[in-house]
# Entry
Amino acid sequence: MSTPLVWHYTVGTHLPAITQTMKLLPTTAPYANTGRRILWLSKAQTWEPAAATLSWKRSSGKAFPPTQRESRQQGLYRFGLAAGDKRLAPWPTITSLAGMAIPESIALVTRALQVGASPTD
# Structure
């Protein structure tokens, strides 16, 4: 039986730093100007809609070519972490721990829902 995983997404331009430090580093939340950095993770076992732009999504088995911006970022990668890891905090607890302002956390959820994600999952 396999261990359930949660996923962290990043672009290829970050891979050299990840392999050098052997760490995934937290970032500032999109649409947030307050709070501490967070390592964002997803429970989605297929590609997380909020992590992939429309050209990276697949439809009916068809792969879409990357945009110029995506090509410069050298692809999209994901790293798995055991879902039971004690360092994980659920939504909305993570926003409180990070000191994120309520309007910013609402904006983050709104944007995630717009792209088809389940941010409170």
Remarks:
- The chain has one domain: 5-115.
- The mean pLDDT is 80.
- Residues 5-115 form one domain.
- The radius of gyration is 15 Å.
